[in-house]
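thought: fold this chain, then report.
action: predict
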Amino acid sequence: MSATSNTKARHYATLASQIRQLNANLGESQVQFALLAEHLDAMRRFSAANAAQFMAVSRLLDVELQGVSAEQVEAAQGGER
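observation:
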């Protein structure tokens, strides 16, 4: 019986150790997920700013290209006369 009790005690000690390790891992996972949430929020804000810059540059290029096209049409019409 003593050998069985010793074996049981070792198994319970091992189980308790593994449960403590699991608890520590879950705590670390919680910290990592909180950090991930912060990073995702920062990426969302960065993406919004980047999209706004892209739209602004696109609008400026559209205006510039329209000006260049108008100048080319005027030049072509002036050359025909």
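thought: worth noting. Helices lie at 2-80.
final: tokens above.
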